[in-house]
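ugh ok fine here u go
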Amino acid sequence: MEEPRSLLAGVPHAFIGRDVELAELAAGLEDAIGRRGRLFLITGEPGIGKTALAGQLAARAREGGMTGPPGD
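structure:
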């Protein structure tokens, strides 16, 4: 059985309207680099962009030269 495909598969999605949240997460990333841990919980209704927000932060971390935990 073939998996359903999104009509937008492969199309870059705009990331709009989460500047405040992304800035807070980026500050947490900087704290982690400085060995000051913080915890963030991203919650909300389905489809509001939780995964996109986390993906944006992950992209920033990769651009900054960060990698995953050992063994990743």
